[in-house]
């Protein structure tokens, strides 16, 4: 009895806990409702007011996550609020485990960045890699429905069976489908086009499957246009989550079609470049970069600019190739393929000091990658096919190349430090003045520093990147350097052309004098040169001086007209 009396009864504590949980759930539901209303208002307002409403919704959702870190509705609203605020990197960090490229890198193990990627957990923190692969499998809905139907084969009432199957399988994919839709849109803005296609297709497939399962529970009278769009859906925990409406489904379909079109055009450009058709590759890259349908994410545009630079180089247009590399580096100064391509181009035209500057910058990036154990930038950002395992070997090769180029520069201009301006301007040696002027005019009009910043207006810079003014300043400085190099090359080649023209005229004059001397020695009359035919002069004395300088010994009947002043 004493032991029983000393131990407190758990009934009052359980009642207090249940009362606290009920009050906490009421607060959570109220915050979620306000956050939902703020996001709906943000979608209908302009940029500034919409950002304020989305920021307010994000604050409310963060309060909910402090009280209930695993609330599915709060996680969804947080991801959608970050997407409305254009904080795409935060969305990718929150749902990193669902990015297919990160999953492949984690499973491959050949990249040192996979250790950091696998050790980091997503913001939601609720599904593992096996469940992700299961959700990505195309037969998941079929297998789940088949397994659930196999459990209830003993029931003869088909309507009850369909309702139970829909109820059991409702929360399996509906809790994860928003992840694919939101993350797919964020991956598009981050330039991860392949991942965006996979995620958007998976999210749309899961949404269609969920709608089909829910429509089983409806009566025939409920299939009206207002009921076809489900605005809210309740999970097992009782919390409501925002389901994709008809407008969102339409926008996702349009975005998916746009991404597929961009990928097809880029694939066609790379195929044309591999087939030895650089002009065709340039045409396809121009369609990608000059798109007017939607904004273009700057990571994807950076990779396309480097690809078009390779096509320009294959077509014998190094100035255009250097200009594209300058644009790519203005967007992303740490993009390794752009630095490699510009260094190779500068070395091919003989600009060795500028090539050494790019190679030193590339060496600093390699040193930082070896020190940090990962490539520059986030682990999911594409680096044009560059892998961390290649950095050590590329660093050794780069060190030897830098030493060799420094030796060539120290040897002087006679050992390869003079720029090949003919290759830079795209003209042949011994070109005429008209060919040189035409080539220079085309390049200067195309690569003018004033026009070099217009490309950034068609691109979208993600939130962690520099602002637009910094990109414009970097592009303007690089374009000014290339413009000065082109003008210097034009002056150098024009002086050579003028020297060749002067030497040709002198050679013609010497040949004419030699011919007249030979004719005078032979005693044969010489005809008047073409330079004295049709001469109109005001003074006869000038005509006589012209005839005397022509070396005429005998008077030749020439019809000359004079006009007195």
UniProtKB/TrEMBL annotation:
<dbReference type="InterPro" id="IPR001623">
    <property type="entry name" value="DnaJ_domain"/>
</dbReference>
<protein>
    <recommendedName>
        <fullName>J domain-containing protein</fullName>
    </recommendedName>
</protein>
<dbReference type="InterPro" id="IPR011990">
    <property type="entry name" value="TPR-like_helical_dom_sf"/>
</dbReference>
<dbReference type="InterPro" id="IPR019734">
    <property type="entry name" value="TPR_rpt"/>
</dbReference>
